[in-house]
């Protein structure tokens, strides 16, 4: 898989040994968040990443939710390369606020999204759904503010700290809480991507017992926002490797970097950008794809996952690579 640099937007591309592809989110609308006219758009970054892996078609696109940094690039992507099945959770659940900017309001973005996907194969995700993309098995663990009823294989353990866990997040339903979260399984390896799901959803997934089981590779939730990434989540899933899709000024919150550093599994953390909010907590420079002080090359992080759980992570900016052996 490749965690694509979307400048704080969502975009993770998974490619199976058979050449089948899954993209979770397509980043920003062109010109956002503050791109210069010459800056590559989110959709063009997807196309570049796909072609580098020999992919000419996105077989399945999951639109996790309808915030501009996740759904914004869909229209341009659909014009740029073939896309098969599109999965989302349904109509936007975030209420429109008076005076809000239509370019970033989920209800407006959803209205623009509907005609773009009209006539295409569109599937509405429900918690508990599962499907295959080549040899990759995808489990939908949460969607539209709800979580799956049962446990995934290997789940069911009690989790320390549940008694004091709060419901951090918006007081009303919003797009982050509605995000689609998935566990992808390939042989013995398991990959977690909860998109922007907040503590409110995490609590339902891991408290009082862990529905998810242990994880090998995790995409750090919500670009590293402290509205997500509770200590209880990391106590439960215990990832060995964590990829942080932060932007230069978005995500990478101090509390999250501290949580990762103190997590029981001590995951090896890789960042898309330096964490300008708390640079003293950055990981080693060789594990940052676009470090501060160097021209932003929109480099991603590539993780090659073997069926036995071995993970080779490569910084596409420098070529630096580490292989983490199988085992939990």
For the structure shown, list the relevant keywords.
328 residues, 9-stranded mixed β-sheet, 18 strands, 8 helices, alpha/beta, 19% helix
Mean pLDDT across every amino acid position: 94
Question: Which overall shape is indicated by the principal axes computed on the Cα atoms?
Answer: globular
Task: Tell me about the largest β-sheet.
Answer: 9 strands, mixed
Order of helices and strands: EEEHEHHEHEEEEHEEHEHEHEEEEE
User: What structural category arises from helix and sheet content?
Assistant: alpha/beta
Number of strands: 18
Low-confidence stretches: none
Kindly state the percentage of residues in helix: 10-25%
Q: Give the CA-CA distance, first to last residue.
A: 20 Å
What integer value in Å does the Rg equal?
18 Å
Tally of alpha and pi helices: 8
Set out the fold topology.
Blueprint: E1 2-3, E2 12-15, E3 21-24, H1 42-52, E4 58-62, H2 68-71, H3 74-80, E5 83-88, H4 106-117, E6 122-124, E7 130-133, E8 136-143, E9 146-147, H5 175-178, E10 181-186, E11 189-193, H6 199-206, E12 217-219, H7 231-237, E13 241-244, H8 254-262, E14 268-273, E15 288-290, E16 301-305, E17 311-315, E18 321-324
Parallel strand pairs: 3-4, 4-5, 5-6, 11-12, 12-13, 13-14, 14-15
Antiparallel strand pairs: 1-2, 1-16, 2-3, 7-8, 8-9, 8-10, 10-11, 16-17, 17-18
What is the compact description of this entry?
The protein is of the alpha/beta class and 328 residues long. It has helices at residues 42-52, 68-71, 74-80, 106-117, 175-178, 199-206, 231-237, 254-262; strands at 2-3, 12-15, 21-24, 58-62, 83-88, 122-124, 130-133, 136-143, 146-147, 181-186, 189-193, 217-219, 241-244, 268-273, 288-290, 301-305, 311-315, 321-324.
């Amino acid at each position: 898989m490749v965690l694509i640099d979307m400048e704080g937007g969502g975009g993770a591309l998974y490619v199976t040994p058979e050449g089948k592809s899954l993209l979770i989110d397509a980043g920003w609308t062109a010109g956002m968040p503050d791109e210069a006219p010459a800056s590559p758009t989110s959709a063009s970054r997807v196309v570049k990443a796909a072609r580098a892996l020999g992919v000419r078609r996105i077989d399945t696109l999951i639109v996790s939710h309808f915030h501009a940094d996740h759904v914004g690039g869909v229209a341009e992507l659909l014009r740029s390369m073939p896309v098969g099945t599109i999965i989302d959770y349904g109509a936007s659940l975030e209420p429109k606020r008076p005076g809000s900017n239509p370019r970033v309001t989920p209800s407006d973005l959803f209205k623009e999204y509907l005609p773009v996907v009209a006539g295409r194969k569109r599937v509405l995700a429900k918690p508990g759904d599962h499907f295959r993309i080549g040899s990759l098995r995808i489990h939908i663990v949460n969607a539209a503010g709800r979580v799956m009823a049962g446990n995934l294989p290997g789940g069911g353990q009690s989790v320390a700290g549940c008694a004091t866990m709060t419901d951090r997040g918006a007081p009303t339903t919003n797009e982050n809480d509605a995000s689609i979260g998935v566990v992808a399984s390939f042989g013995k390896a398991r990959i977690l991507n909860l998109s922007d799901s907040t503590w409110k959803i995490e609590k339902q997934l891991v408290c009082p017992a862990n529905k998810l089981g242990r994880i090998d590779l995790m995409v750090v939730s919500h670009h590293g926002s402290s509205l997500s990434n509770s200590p209880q989540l990391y106590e439960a899933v215990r990832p060995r490797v964590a990829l942080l899709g932060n932007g230069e000024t978005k995500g990478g919150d101090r509390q999250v970097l501290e949580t990762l550093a103190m997590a029981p599994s001590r995951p090896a953390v890789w960042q898309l950008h330096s964490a300008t909010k708390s640079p003293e907590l950055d990981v080693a420079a060789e594990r940052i794809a676009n470090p501060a002080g160097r021209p932003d090359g929109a480099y991603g992080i590539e993780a090659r996952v073997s069926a036995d759980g071995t993970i080779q992570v490569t910084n596409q900016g420098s070529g630096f690579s580490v292989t983490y052996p199988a085992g939990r």
